[in-house]
Amino acid sequence: EAGVAQSPRYKIIEKRQSVAFWCNPISGHATLYWYQQILGQGPKLLIQFQNNGVVDDSQLPKDRFSAERLKGVDSTLKIQPAKLEDSAVYLCASSFRKGDTGELFFGEGSRLTVL
Amino acid sequence: QKEVEQDPGPLSVPEGAIVSLNCTYSNSAFQYFMWYRQYSRKGPELLMYTYSSGNKEDGRFTAQVDKSSKYISLFIRDSQPSDSATYLCAMSETAGNNRKLIWGLGTSLAVNP
């Protein structure tokens, strides 16, 4: 079974530029998450989708971040304009099971450096 | 006060040592407790999952939950260099896809050959 795919793996941009990250979850996984992980910290949930509907985006800085999940499959996270403090790894995760662990399966992440 | 506290380390131990990793929490409504392992430049992967209080064992790994003390632990027996990673605790009040996971900072572990 293929895992969660993310691209690009690495991106370096200047502040005020824009960037987009793409995620393809595990086939059949209805729930998709975008997390931000700053060096030395735990993951911070940015947005959670159930199919193509938003479940939780309370911590998404909506003035600069946007995300969409068209057709309930792959997803794109955009940052525009980027700030220095956006330097982080952006992790995409997906999950399937509803009743038990609801284990999150993570991709390898997209590492963003804002100069 | 953060909902979940975890000492970031780093923790360095010799191969074969018993490792103890811990998290404390403040929300007494947490019932589901997880340990994720994250290798360098990789995403986290679920290592252990525990519901409510008690112990759970899987090979060299034991997860322990003490709800009365609001304290969870992960023990690694006979630690190996391949156990070198960051260990993240996570917990939630409810189960399933719509639960809100609260994460610790992660503890960096190095097992030296």
Structure description:
The complex is a heterodimer of chains A (115) and B (113). Chain A is mostly beta strands. Helix content of chain A is 0%, strand content 48%. In chain A, strand 7 (65-68) and strand 8 (75-79) form a beta hairpin. Chain A is globular, with a radius of gyration of 13 Å. Chain B is built from no helices and 11 strands. Chain B is mostly beta strands. Helices cover 0% and strands 53% of the residues of chain B. The chains are: A mainly beta (115), B mainly beta (113). The A-B interface holds A 4, 30-31, 40-45, 50, 55-56, 91, 93, 95-109, 111 and B 4, 6, 8, 32, 34, 36, 41-46, 49, 88, 90, 95-101, 103-106.
**Main sheet makeup of chain A:** 7 strands, mixed
Overall morphology of chain A:
globular
**Mean pLDDT score of chain B:** 93
| Major sheet attributes of chain B | 6 strands, mixed
Topology pattern of chain B, helix = H, strand = E: EEEEEEEEEEE
Helical content of chain A, roughly?
under 10%
Number of helices of chain A: 0
What portion of the residues of chain B fall into strands of 2 or more residues?
over 45%
| Rg value of chain B | 13 Å
Looking at this protein, list some descriptive labels.
heterodimer, A: 115 residues, mainly beta, seven-stranded mixed sheet, 0% helix, globular, B: 113 residues, five-stranded antiparallel sheet
